[in-house]
Write a structure and sequence with these properties.
By secondary structure, the chain is α/β, with parallel strands linked by helices. It is built from 13 helices and twelve strands. Strands 3-12-11-10-9 form a five-stranded parallel β-sheet. It has a five-stranded parallel β-sheet with strand order 4-5-6-7-8, with helices on one face. Helix 3 (63-75) crosses helix 9 (261-281), helix 8 packs parallel to helix 9 (261-281) and helix 11 (306-323) packs across helix 12 (342-358).
Length: 395
């Protein structure tokens, strides 16, 4: 076996010749094919080798890892565990009928009592302008808002709707005696909605602080992840130019996981590193708030096999946590041919995050991916490429 030979040779090899030994073994099993064929272009124009060691020059600087670790610790206050993320499953609402909202409220309270730290209300199927105080009363009955992360996914055509909905929610919380500065969560709105200076000024003038995020910026997936990160940085600059640097406290960064495990890990880590640099340049003390979601598969197995989807969800969720996400939403899957109920599928999705925390103990380590030179190389190359592209966009 290749792994047996590799282990044997590695144990005999001196530190300086470790990679040489690996190359000799790999070349043997490639049967004459060039070693460079193992290089992987994981983003447009960015490649990594299949093997790295601690003795290589490129792996001698761990400063960015230390900053990522320190930032992750800072995010946990007042949480006592080294690594923390909000588990926020979806709760879909299809109408503003009292019975529908009360049903969603019952489901929300059950979710919060079952180990999740919050929920996302999917309101995309309703006219958001019709959502009024009574709607909030039915939906959030007996929900202690400052003690859980409550988010809303809304479909809007103009940013005035975002402004109105934000005001309705904060007014509701204030009228119920909750401290608005302690609200946690955010509003996920359409990607293409331009935020006017009036809306940005409104957000800054409210009592909403850095725990609640009415502004959502989506980090796109595609062939060029570095460009997607650079585009996000440019959007930040635009928002600050149209308001001021305090708007950074109200931004939630949305990133969707893919089936490419190490790409997802490195993309989230690179995004956080560059956000930290941008926030430092603006001299603000807020921490970037990243919300990761798993993706729905479109292949045949994803459409017909629930066990396949369970594995996909778990792997994607794991990569998001390793990347250092603040919020994790596992999208539930239900195979078209399955007789299982939607409630069952949602329960399984919610429990993915809980099982990773309670059974894998991944929350006990500040940076579980630290020491992976492969992931470190991917992260650093994404950082360098994204920053270069961002500088080019600035002219």
């Amino acid at each position: 076996m290749f792994t047996d030979n590799f282990e044997s040779q590695s144990n005999k090899a001196k530190s300086g010749s470790l990679k040489k030994q690996w190359l000799e073994t790999a070349t043997k099993f490639l049967k004459g094919k060039p070693y460079q064929e193992l290089d992987w272009e994981f983003s447009e124009g960015i490649s990594v080798e299949p093997y790295y060691t601690k003795d290589e020059k490129d792996n001698s600087d761990f400063s960015h890892l230390q900053i990522l670790q320190n930032n992750q610790i800072a995010l946990n206050d007042p949480v006592s565990v080294p690594r923390f993320w909000y588990n926020q499953p979806f709760v879909r609402i299809d109408s503003l009928e009292k019975e529908e909202l009360e049903k969603a409220n019952k489901e929300t309270r059950r979710i919060l009592m079952s180990g999740a730290e919050g929920v996302i209300f999917d309101l995309q199927s309703i006219a958001i302008n019709d959502f009024d105080e009574k709607s909030f009363e039915y939906l959030l009955f007996e929900v202690a808002l400052p003690y859980c992360a409550i988010s809303f996914q809304i479909d809007i055509k103009e940013d005035v709707s975002l402004r109105d909905f934000s005001k309705k929610y904060t007014d509701y919380a204030r009228d119920r005696g909750f401290d608005v500065t302690l609200l946690t969560g955010g509003i996920l709105h359409n990607k293409n909605v331009e935020l006017s200076k009036e809306t940005l000024a409104f957000i800054l003038d409210t009592d909403i602080k850095c725990r609640f995020h009415p502004i959502s910026l989506y980090v796109e997936n595609g062939k060029d992840d570095a460009q997607a990160i650079a585009d996000t940085l440019f959007k930040i600059k635009t928002l600050v130019d149209n308001s001021n640097k305090s708007i950074l406290q109200n931004i939630e960064f949305i990133i969707q996981a893919t089936d490419s495990f190490f790409v997802t890990v490195s993309k989230i880590r690179a995004l956080r590193w560059l956000l930290i640099q941008i926030y430092d340049l603006y001299e603000v003390s807020y921490n970037p708030y990243i919300h990761s979601m798993t993706s729905r598969g479109t292949d045949e197995k994803s459409l017909t096999d629930e066990n396949w989807n369970l594995i996909r969800n778990t792997t994607q969720a794991f990569s998001c946590i390793l990347g250092g996400t603040n919020v994790l939403t596992v999208v539930s899957h239900q195979a078209e041919s399955s007789e299982n109920t939607k409630a069952w599928a949602a329960r399984i999705a919610r429990n993915v995050s809980i099982m990773l925390r309670e059974e894998s103990f991944i929350d006990k380590n500040v940076d579980p991916i630290s020491g992976s030179y492969y992931s470190q190389q991917m992260t650093e190359k994404l950082i360098d490429s994204a920053w270069t592209k961002f500088q080019e966009m600035l002219g």
